[in-house]
Amino acid sequence: AKKSGRNLVCFFDPKMEISIINRxxxxxxxxxxxxxxxxxxxxxxxxxSSNTPVGAEALIRWNHPQRGIVSPLxxxxxxxxxxxxxxxxxxxxxxxxxxxxxxxxxxxxxGLSLSINVSAKQFHKADFVDIIKKSIDKYSVNPKLLKIExxxxxxxxxxQTIIEKMNTLAAIGIQFSxxxxxxxxSSLQYLKKLPxxxxxxxxxxxxxxxxxxxxxxxxxxxxSMAQSLGLSVIAEGVETEQQQQYLISQGCRNFQxxxxxxxxxxxxxxxxxxxxx
Length: 277
Ligand code: C2E
Ligand code: CA
Ligand code: CA
Ligand code: CA
Prior knowledge:
This protein is an alpha/beta fold. It has helices at 2-11, 14-35, 76-82, 85-104, 120-123, 128-138, 159-171, 188-193, 203-206, 213-229, 241-249, 266-276, and strands spanning 39-48, 53-64, 68-70, 113-117, 146-151, 175-181, 198-201, 232-235, 254-255. The chain has an 8-stranded mixed β-barrel with strand order 1-2-4-5-6-7-8-9, surrounded by 4 helices. The longest helix has 22 residues, at 14-35.
């Protein structure tokens, strides 16, 4: 009896209860968010080595009625777990394509590429390719301007199916970038087989680039590996000119980070482009 009493106490651990309630509330609020259009895309510029804008990454935000802007770090893991990432991901694809259509019609933004983040669960859905194609058609998007960022976690599935899906999309011009490169699982054998266009150096290697000789070595290796695989390379999390200079000296030609701009709402992004062009 004593034992089950202890179990009972454990079951009603107040901290645990709060976290379950929080989770339930969060899940409910996320469903409401979808219905009420509370998601928003922010855009972070990507530049070349002369700091000319070449594209942007779309980063989701949740505009919560009480909490204000909520970071994706606070809800993406949960929506990946519950499966809600499918609907949210579809919203991201639709919104990004609608935005690309608008950019294609304006002189300042024509030719800018737009990168979207796609979760493993989303990519592995049977209709992923169709969903992308439908949005591209719906908004007459030039497929060459749409870039899909995948993380190495995507590659943990059946590699043949992954290659087929990527090939189908790459055949119509869609580009693929391997996000957070160097932080996860990666086999060079696979890298060679995938129709990738870009490796994205994770910001954890860029952060202390100018003081950490290990990070210098890693970055150097990623860049030369990308070059020998015929891939372009972009560094994320670039915050200082020194970091950018070092990256340039090693052959990196594309950059993203607070040095150029934080992720910003669409209006700010569109007024920023002519300024830094
Ligand atoms: P990520 O794809 O690696 O995106 C880069 C993150 O680094 C972004 O955080 C960006 O705001 C931040 N960042 C950019 N430049 C700098 C810099 O110079 N310094 C520092 N310290 N940080 C910088 P954010 O926007 O909070 O997004 C976090 C993560 O959430 C993303 O990491 C991505 O994994 C996920 N995410 C965002 N939007 C989406 C989405 O639409 N779909 C999915 N599946 N995941 C998303
Ligand atoms: Ca990304
Ligand atoms: Ca990243
Ligand atoms: Ca990351």
